[in-house]
Amino acid sequence: MERAYNFNAGPSALPLEVLNRAQEELVNFKQTGMSVMELSHRSKEYEEVHEQAQSLLRELMQIPNNYEILFLQGGASLQFAQIPMNFLREGKIGNYVLTGSWSEKALKEAKLIGETFIGASTKEQGYNSIPHVEEIAINKNDAYLHVTSNNTIYGTQWHKFPQFENISLIADMSSDILCRPIQVENFSLIYAGAQKNLGPSGVTVVIVKKDLLENSRQDIPTILRYTTHAEANSLYNTPPTFAIYMLSKVLEWVKEQGGIQAIEKRNIEKAKLIYDAIDESEGFYRGHAEKNSRSLMNITFNLPSDELNKKFLAEAKAAGFVGLNGHRSVGGCRASTYNSVPLEACMALRQFMIEFKDNHNQ
Ligand SMILES: *Cc1c(COP(=O)(O)O)cnc(C)c1O
To answer: With a threshold of 0.70, does the pTM exceed it?
Structure first.
């Protein structure tokens, strides 16, 4: 069977090699006579999977030893609440930079917990760009500064992160973790739901600096404290074992591809194919994001009319392209070109876009 040209925004494409390997060991994992799903999370065999996922992530992202790597549940959405619950104390301010719907959702949760502030926002421009680092306002009692590194719905991405002395930088990297190298040292906490670049849904990766944990609140429910999970090595309760197993397989694959640098190079090549099709279309395709804020992972665009958007999406679907419709809140078209989307799929989409334009641009 042919694999689909999968441009889904999340859950999204996984590498075929990873799926094949998981299939090979599905019913008998490492001569246990059981699937990974059937192993005890306290067994030696599972423990190896858990540790491999942590150590591969540490190696690939060059995560220093003063950071914990946690595997949690509840998606990135639980992090929106868990971050202020742990770090937003009385008298402190949660500072949020708004660059799209996900940052708005993060802010909404923080407001339920404590005092918040909007350090910068590009809402008035329809979230088509990322604010300049110099434009971000801070307060001396900020508990943290929260950013969304890639805006999945609007198709924008930070290319230079803010850096303020004495303010912990927290980033939602759900839709671009591992798409390019970053300096983990510049962040106090990074979180990402796995279902875009890391694996299947069900596990959320949290990378957190140990000294941030030292100041976290302990008067909240046990399962919501980061320290609970750090002390138990993410085995406080039953973790999503199969999702973590798939994560370890995806990380193995990233390493085989040559690591994050090689992945980035290919991501640039993939995105360029589609951005060039937009830029060379003489206005037929209109990119939503300003050029200097464009995302490597989510390419958003519109055609000259709603009718043409619909026609484009219908014909693309018939031609075997999956997931090209924009998010239900903004409409239009979106191609999500996550790490696992092959170059060939992007080449095929580029070709389709050029042909569609030639057929409909009289
Ligand atoms: C998908 C996404 C989320 C939501 O993730 P869930 O795991 O569904 O909670 C949050 N933030 C960003 C940037 C996303 O892309």
So the answer is: yes
